[in-house]
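Record type: monomer structure entry
Structure origin: computed from sequence
Chain ID: A
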Amino acid sequence: MSRFGALALAVTVSCACAAENDVLQSLRIGQHTFKVEVAATSQQRERGLMGRTRLPENGGMLFVFDTTRRHCFWMRNTPLPLSIAFIDEAGRISNIANMQPHTDTLHCPTIAIRYALEVSQGKFAQRDIIAGDQVDGLPQ
């Protein structure tokens, strides 16, 4: 491989890694801890978990919104089946939905929310996390 080819490969690999958010936030729901990426800018929220093929066992993505309202989600260009917990401003889960890969089906909270937490599908159910549970460690 030429030096130019090796450099191009290195740049491509580092760009792919940079697409994932390096800042991890620890969240606690009951006795369960999640280490999640934070999507706090409009660009990060729009990108979400698009293109990802795996998540760490206790990983996911926390969406933080500037305004509290009924923010809806879809799974366009997202190959992973995900579960999403919609979380109000006080940190209480309003509802949880399962989302199928590569769909434009809208998944909406039942009330106005400030946060949404996406994890691998079934992870909330496996841990008996339900609507009404408190999420601790949310950024303000």
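Annotation 1: Residues 22-136 form a domain with the Jelly Rolls fold (CATH 2.60.120.1140).
Annotation 2: Residues 1-19 have pLDDT under 50 and may be disordered.
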